[in-house]
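A quick aside before the break. I want you to see a complete sequence-to-structure record at least once, exactly as it would be stored in a machine-readable document. Don't worry about memorizing anything.
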Amino acid sequence: MGHMVGKDIYKSLGKKLDGLTVRVKQNETFYRIIKTLYSEEEADVIVKMPYGLSTIDRIEKTTGYEKSKLLRILEGLCAKGLVIDLLIRDEFHYTPSPMVIGVFEFTMMRTGGNLDIKEWARLFNEYMEDGGFHTVNFQNGELVSPIRALPHENTIRNTEYVEVLHYEKATAIVEEASKLAIGICSCRHEKLHVDKKSCEVPLQTCASFGYAADYLIRNNLAKEVSRQEMLQSLAVSREMGLVFSADNVKNNVTFICQCCGCCCNVLAGIREFGYTNTIVTSSYIADVDRDRCTGCGKCASACPIGAIELVPANDPKTKKTKLRIDTDICIGCGVCVLQCDRTKALTLIKREKRVIHPETTFERVILQCLERGTLQNQIFSNPRSITQKVMRGIVGGFLRLTPVKKALMSDTLRSSFLGSMRKGAEKTKKGWLLDL
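That is the input. The structure line, written in tokens, reads:
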């Protein structure tokens, strides 16, 4: 068909992945990862694909690949988790998988066949362990992460002024889901193969819902389960004191991770690298009743990010200790409250400062890309159009200006900005994006 894969195709692929919903640290390990996972032909297709979700007809036009060959390549990429195909309004739409949530998770969720899981785990561990990936995504105080803490139910202080909304309840998310799936936890799978898994938590804990579950099931990355099986899985994780981390949206939640402190790369962003915004906090925060607290320390041991510690009570007559909660890093997960079952001294209370949780995936992607300087790629998504390349440069330069970014993310302008983006999607015949 006349196109040739250039010798620098992996540099182009690295640049493409860096322009998606999360940034990537382009170092030697990153390039070893993508050279291991993508063939040159697959890399070429990804580079030439539009940045966002697109139909096969549009991808055929932008890549120049003949449709039957293109479908074969895309099918292989989807099976590897390197492309996401979503069935929306009875038509498949494809998009390159970002590094997170995407390439890392789906690669480490693969099973069967002659897979080089141990080598993939080693490379991903090497890539994540220096904190560079967290730095490029959160060093400027970004507020919109793909993941939010989900408070454990019955850990929130019961008052007439607190209403726990449906998207803050794991059981409500399960009950509302049209399809459910459970797969391997990518972080624990990675740590298992590099001999860093120190917990007894099982691997099969990654819960997915709706169109995300459908994608994982179709591509053999997860197994479909019943509602009862899903609720049982969550109950076991609650008993084990795991953090529930959900899709950072209010509607159509697509996943709940069940995270342990020893394995989770997201929690490591807080605990090891000091980026408190790697996971968006819940709308709640831990609070202690000092009259009830005995200073047993069970909560401090359970906290996966070290937000609780025991300190001297400053009482010279006793050797008692008291609890200190670091409210700057507490994510409001409620794991500590689960451990305080005897005295009931700990509960979650409503945060004073409002927490931003986007309404939909469409909104989250817009805000996430705005913060990371890649929104122009979602708007002008054809990588091979000269006109769109010029527009990406102009609009991208404008959106990266700090005053512009702060204004659009502010409480004053954020709603109207998102409203304009929704209208733009409808005018360009992409109203189906609003279903996400």
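Two observations worth writing down. The domain at 284-348 is CATH 3.30.70.20 (Alpha-Beta Plaits). The CA atoms of residues 32 and 123 lie 8 Å apart. We'll return to this after the break.
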